[in-house]
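cron nightly-structures :: item 1 of 1
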Amino acid sequence: MRIFIHHSGALGDLLLSLPAIETLRASGDVVHLSGRRDVVDFLIKIGYIHETSDSDSSLFLPLFTGIYDSAIRHFLGGFDKVYVFTVNGSSEFVKHMHSMVRNLWVIHTIPPPGTRMHVSKFRLQQILPHDNFTVTGCSPLSTLTTASIYMEKAMEMLENAGYDFKKPLTAIHPGSGGRWKCWPFDHCKGLAMKLREAGDHFLLLLSGPAEEGELKKGTESLAATLGKGCLHASGLELITVASLLSLCDFYIGNDSGITHLASFLTKKGIALFGPTDPALWRPIHNGYMVIRPNHECAPCENMLSWNALGKYPSDCHIQCLSDISVQTVYDAVSPNFPR
């Protein structure tokens, strides 16, 4: 049995589909995953998936235009079952896929309006009719592990930065794909300095493609201030980021793809939520604490309808995230590292 899965979501969105994908993968059949190049490259490098393709490949263009050619017909004809993960089950892409594929399953990625169900559970239940999944301690789901060659590279990077592998290694990711989901950088800086002053943490600061401009410059400046007490990992492949995270004792970040990646690799961590709803988007593994503000307006993003994604009130200044104090986060970190 050959299974084709199309999932064009970003890192965090695809990772939250892994419980559903794991169910298909666990059948022992050959699974081909089409998705964003950086994400599927990572999954095939860790041996999680059998075959991959870039969802932006010109091969799939006919599924958007409706002008079919022999290449896409031959490609899709090589699969026994096809699954499309999408926010819009009535899109032109899905309509054209229906016209070409007999055994097609559409997996809606966002719960319907009025349903505050975690997206991983919602997606999994469309494959498994019975409820055997909880948001934390989820099942079925295998852990993600990286090969020794990547782990050795990560350890070398840390050694070169001055890490002696004796102090706790704590990762901080100040960014996110949506700037409106970010804890103010001054707060991140204050937390890093406070952890450094405590003298019992080596810090891993993470910057990715979404953290360009002032946020990246700020992180570079913070790393320079911390000196030998930290490593600033910037612009790295996901496999390298994952290897570094797997060596960490603790993680702190926003509602982001890297936070979800860390939750698969790091036993403990904190996810900071403001405009988005943790009932739908929180990390799915045990050991991760959600810190959110006590604001009546939060979460303000209407995540219950796919066509409202990324929207929040125009007069909102994300005060909810600003009001999460450095001390609040520090107090949540400290019990994990008793002196």
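cron nightly-structures :: done
Confidence is low (pLDDT under 50) at residues 130-140, 303-309.
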